[in-house]
Predict the structure.
Amino acid sequence: MQTKLFINGDFVDAEAGQTLDVLNPHDNSVITQIAEGREADIDRAVAAAKTAFPAWRDLGASDRGLLLLRLADKIEQNREELARLEATDTGHPIRDCLNLDVPRTVLCFRYFGGMADKLEGSVIPVDAGFLNYLQREPIGVVGQIVPWNFPLMFTSWKMAPALAAGNTVVLKPAEITPLSTLRIAELMREVGFPPGVVNIVPGYGQTAGQRLADHPDVGKIAFTGSTATGRRIVEASAGNLKKVQLELGGKGPNIVFADANIPMAVGGSAFGIFHNQGQACIAGSRLILHEKIADQFLDKFVGLAKSIKLGNPLDPSTEMGPLTSKLHQERVLNYVKIAHQEGAEILTGGKVPDDPALADGCYVEPTVVMAQPEDRVCQEEVFGPFVSVNIFAEDEEALAIANGTEYGLGAGFWTSDLTRAHLLAKNLHAGMVWINTYKRVHPASPFGGVGQSGYGREMGFEVMREYTQAKSVWVNVDAKIPPFYKR
Ligand code: NAD
C-alpha cells in the first residue's frame, strides 16, 4: 500500500516528516499512516508540475490520450484490489465498488483518453480578407481538491479531462480517504506518465488545500466539496485571479406524481438516497410525494429502507456500509435530533443499528422523516442515509417545494405525462434533471450545479472548455484595408 506523497514521479516523505492516521470506518481501526503534505510539499508539487508542463502540453494529443487509455486498462486489471482498498478506506460496500466506483473510474479515463485528440478549435467568419481561428490551449498547472465521498471516481473526474487538455496536475485528496488515489498514482507511473505531470499531495484543507488554492503558479483550481469551503477557495484564488470551478453541495428534490410507475419510483428513489449511505451531492434527499399516492409509496419505500442490509463493506452481501468517518456519523445523527426538535415524524431509522458487530463503526440506519419544506432537515444538506418527505397536491406546489432551497444541483421526478415532464425539466432550478430515473451520471454528460451548488461543469465537451482557454488568431490573408495612417 502506497502511503507517501507522489511528487515529480517519486513517492516521498512530507518535508517536515509529519504523518496522519487513515481509519477504517467499519470499526475505526487504523489502516495505515500516510505522509501529511503541508504548504512546503504543495510548493514542491507545484514546482514539479510547472516544470513538466511545456513538454506535456507539446506532446501529441494522441500520445496524451494513449497514456490515459493505458491507465484505464491498468485500473481494470487491478479492479479487485482497488475495490477492496476503496471499500476499506471509505466504507462503500464492496459490491458497489466492484460494480460502480471502479468501472466508472475506468470509463472516465477511457472517455477522456479518447477525447484528447478530438478537441478541435474553429474558424470564425470575420471581415473579408482575414482568417480568424480559435485554438484551445491548456491553462498550465491545475490544482484539484476532492472530498471523501467518492475518492477513486472523483480522482478520474478531476484528472482525466485536465490531462487530456494538456494541463499538469497537483491533486489533494481528502485527508481521510487518500489510499485509492495514491494507488492510481502508482499505476500512472507504471504506464509511463512523465514525472511531474501528476502530483498527489494528501493533507488537511486548512494547510495543503489552502496553499493550493492561493498558490501563484496554479492557473486554475477545480474543487469538489462543501459550499462553505467553496467560498474560501474563491477568496484564496483572488491573489493571482486563477480560474475556479466549484462542485458544491446539493439538496436533491425527487418528486413522485400520482401517475408514476410506483415500483420503479420506489426502487429508483431508494438508490437515489441510500446508495453510498446517502453521501452524494446529487442524492435525492427530499422526497416530494403527491397526496394521492403518498401512503402507498411510503408503505413500500419505508419497507424497503427497513430491509436494507447494513454490514461490513467487505462482505459481498452488504447493501449499506458505514458513513466514512465518526465525525460525519455524529453530524448526521445531529440532524435526527434537529428533526425531533422541529416536530418531524421519524418513519424509520434515525439511530445507529443495534447489531453489536457494527457498534464500533460509523453506521446509521436508513432514515425517513416526514417534515415541512421550510424545516432545516429539508433545507440543509445532511449528506447521509436521511431523506425528508413532503406532500403536495398541485404541480405548481411540487415545483415550488423542489426549487425552494439555496441549492441547484440534481433534481428528478417520476411521471408518465410527457407535457408535465418537459415543463418541469425546463422550470427546475438545477444543473441536472432526471426523468423516471435518478442519479444517473456518465463521463459524456455535463455535471454541475447552479446557485449555491457551484459553477462550471465536469464531464463531456463542456469540461474541456473549463480546462482550456481560447486563443483567437488573426491573419491578414488578402484584406483590402482602408489606408489608415498612409503617408
Ligand atoms: P469539505 O469542503 O470539508 O472538504 C472537501 C475538500 O476540501 C477536502 O479535500 C478538504 O481537505 C478540502 N478543504 C477543506 N478546507 C479547505 C480550505 N480552507 N482550502 C482548501 N481546501 C480545503 O467537504 P467534505 O465534507 O469533505 O465533502 C462533502 C461535501 O462535498 C458535501 O457538501 C457535498 O455535497 C460536496 N460534494 C459535492 C459534489 C459535487 O460534484 N457538487 C460531489 C461530492 C461532494
Remarks:
- The first helix runs from residue 39 to 58.
- Residues 130 and 476 are 5 Å apart (CA to CA).
